[in-house]
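Input (structure):
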């Protein structure tokens, strides 16, 4: 069995080619974290998208969802530098 690939931006498992950013197996980021070409979207865009996802899945209010999204992103390799640079 092939090693499961996990998006380095949000943690989503990527199984099929369509799951990978730009439809490119081997991309480190998933289709939700990238633009059509497979390039990683900016931090603020991903934070907003992930916040909406958390609200839709857990029903928490926006303030809690933002905090949950930020905590998740802080653990991801794609955003490590962002949090280090911004002292967060």
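Output (sequence):
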């Amino acid at each position: 069995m092939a090693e499961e690939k996990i998006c380095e931006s949000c943690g989503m498992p990527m199984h099929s080619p369509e799951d990978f950013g730009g439809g490119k197996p081997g991309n480190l980021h998933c289709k939700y974290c990238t633009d059509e070409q497979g390039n990683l979207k900016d931090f603020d865009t991903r934070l907003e998208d992930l916040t909406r996802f958390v609200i839709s899945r857990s029903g928490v209010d926006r303030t809690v969802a933002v905090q949950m999204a930020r905590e998740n992103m802080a653990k991801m390799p794609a955003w490590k530098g962002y949090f280090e640079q911004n002292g967060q």
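Notes: Residues 51 and 69 are 6 Å apart (CA to CA). The chain has a mean pLDDT of 93.
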